[in-house]
User: Fold these one by one.
Assistant:
Number 1:
Amino acid sequence: MSFRIRPSKFRHVYGEPAKKNLCYENIRISKNAHDTYFSCANPKFLAVIIESAGGGAFQVLPLERFGRIDLDWGKVSGHSGPVLDIKFDPFNDNVIASASEDCTVKLWHIPDGGAREIRDSLVTLQGHTRRVVQIEWHPTAENILISAGSDSLVILWDCGAGEAIRIIDCHKDVVCSMGFSWTGNVFATTCRDLQIRLIEPRMAKLAQITPGHAGSKASKLAFLTNRKQLFTTGFSKYTDRQYAVWDINNLSQPLKMDILDSSSGVTFPYYDPDTSVVYLAGRGDGNIRYYEMVDSFPVLHYLSQYQSSAPQRSLCAMPKRGLNVNACEIFRFYKLYATKNYIEPISMIAPRKSGLFHEDLFPETAAPTPSMTTEDWLNGQNSPPVMTSLKTRDSLKTNKPVVYRAGDNQLITSDRNNELKFRFIADTAKVDYRPLSERKQNKGALTDDDVRGGFNR
């Protein structure tokens, strides 16, 4: 009988932990029992929720600040209760949002190079009556954020105006996880009531609901953004750890549901839309499994796993624009150790010849610029993310001004000129030989009038 191995360019991907001199020590990682990531990263900073007396705090460190860290360096404090979740703005590397047990969400500006201590927030978002457990930024529209609280409410915020846009009250218990679609027209949630929901945020309307994993422990999800699918992790009624894949057009039955193992830690999914690879890491585990998503049955294929003897408290992932493409690094985790105050970067490497750019490993990825304004999105517009190439490695870090106009109660995190310049630079390699009159018919492309008008505003 012949045995055929399925070809895959990710079959031999392996995890490579950083050397000790490139790790972070003396970080007082939070011991809160809440099921969250406890950290986040972008090409400039690494942020970690820490233990703090007299209120909640987190620590923001420049990526290059390795070694033993002073206990209070980079401390961001201003919440009156423990911080439960933090997320960097995808369009401004210097802005971070935090959710806390004090029922508020705060936005902070982190100066380049970090700061010794930050106490004053840019904006405070108030609307929840109980602790805020989850936050998520919109993937394409500027200044749009959703938050979920223990009051079973999900609130859609306009961070620029500092006010709530919609209040969604379709959940019967605490939300465990949230994720936006590719264009941000819908988002999905898992909940303590064991249901998976698909919600249209602008209408505050429940689009679909279906029973998820039968176990009572927390269930997590990752929106397989460019595939119109959901990937969820949870527990069976016999407390076995499971994963499932769902079609968002029909959530009545999963496309695939299978058992992982019998461990007790909550499993967190991480999805890379550029390579269609899903990574699974459980709290208290030392390993990271990874799977490749495919279009045909059986939906996904197991690739391999990274193994370590040190258990992890949690992991966060670096956006694609922060990776070392010359070393064929296709993904990077920051591992928070469960047993000591230590953070270790782990690079997922595809074994290719280093020093060359491999376009099949690094297709165009989401750029750090919004494709819509807040008003455009609220008026019903949908648009995919602005894409950029990693080959030139230009404009991969943002340097946008942050201004708070107190008189207008308005937060300005970027300006229209910078956005138009970025989009113009990103499109320069795509030569368009059509007459100008025909180019104007392409709504997705910038015209000369758009560029001149934007620069003169």
Number 2:
Amino acid sequence: EASEYAKQHGVLFMETSAKSGLFVKEMFLTMAKELSNRIPLKTTSSSSLLGHGQAWEGGGGVDSSGVKAGSCC
């Protein structure tokens, strides 16, 4: 039932077990990879928290002096 719901709504579905730990690590790794594929990245001239030469276009962050930058809350 949950698998069919996920298919109908175009979302990822994985069966896991918190009790036994079955597929929990795999689920987090898969979700992290899926989310990273959905976040638009742009090339910058300096390194950032996302890696060398990449920055998240969502705004916010910290500038070189350690001050919060952008329009994030």
